[in-house]
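Here is one record:
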Amino acid sequence: MPDRPDYTALTRGQIAVLDRLNAGETGLPVVQRIVRLAEEVLGGLGAGFVEYSPGHGRVVAASGTCVPAVGRRVAPTSVDALNHVFGDPSRVLGVRCQAGDTAVGSLHVYFGEQDEKPGPAHLGVIELLAALLGRLYAAQRELAADVDQARRQENRDLWVAVTSHELRTPVTVIKGYADTLTNHWDTLGEAGRHEAVRVIGTRAGELARLVDRLLSATSEDGEIGGAPAGPFDLPETLRGAVDELPADLRRRIKLGNLPAELPKAYGDRDSIATILTELATNAEKNSAPDTAIELCAAADGETLRFRIADRGIGIRPEHVERAFERYWQAEGGERRRHPGAGLGLYLVRRLVERQQGWVSLRPREGGGTTAEVRLPRA
């Protein structure tokens, strides 16, 4: 860490950010630019921004060594309490970001253990950049003057989108196995036919439960009913979900460490099949057909996690959060080869967060992408 901030870089960066704000840009790329600017100007090893929402916060942008924290859901208690998300709290400098009287988030910069602790000049810079973030969020509010009406319309659209997408997974599996029975009845053998019928029956039951949930949804805000929560065995549930994947995708799944002695997870057991199907399908689309898609699970003191990793084209660091936006898709050849509505990862985040968990993507060392889902311990 330098003795004093790089004020030349700060001036250039401020001008660039203000130009974008004056042009009406208020989205995540501007937030990411300010985060990178904080790391660059202060000479930190990484930086991150926690966006506050009612009842929780989420790391929506990060740079340097703090990138793995992107997507993490946190309790927005105090800035000091959030410093641990990005590293050793004694080496993290954090400042709250205000839009008028409302705290909209907090900006944090992580300094290495070999560095001197930041001084007043560093604090002044991060406060300046936090004020820029507050101005950005204030501009967002001005652009959404009729926010209540916009929210209601968005949730009505979302209800339709999630309904159609959540129904599509079991329907696709049922149709696939039914076609297999029709076209390959004789070659399947008795065991294969019994297995196909079993999967069809399981997915038909899931479809019936989905329809019941959708029909019972009456709230204006677009919620799809309450997720039935309870303790469940995560490794067993994952193995069952893999067994119900389409045959071509199932053959590519390589089961890694799924310890039977893991503690119970707490959440909606039935949703795991949908979450796994979406993440595995995403990995399949973005990796070569002769490569494995790896699945493993583990636990720590507060959560259980499972990871799906591929050796595909990977994901750019600036896209790890945007990939969860509704309708967002990466540009380029892969999008043309694999067209879609851009709802799969959005649905995954929605399902996971309803269970007080969080999901994230990150580039995999050596190439590819790792998707990680964390759920509360029972």
In short: The first strand starts at residue 46 and ends at 53. The chain has a mean pLDDT of 84.
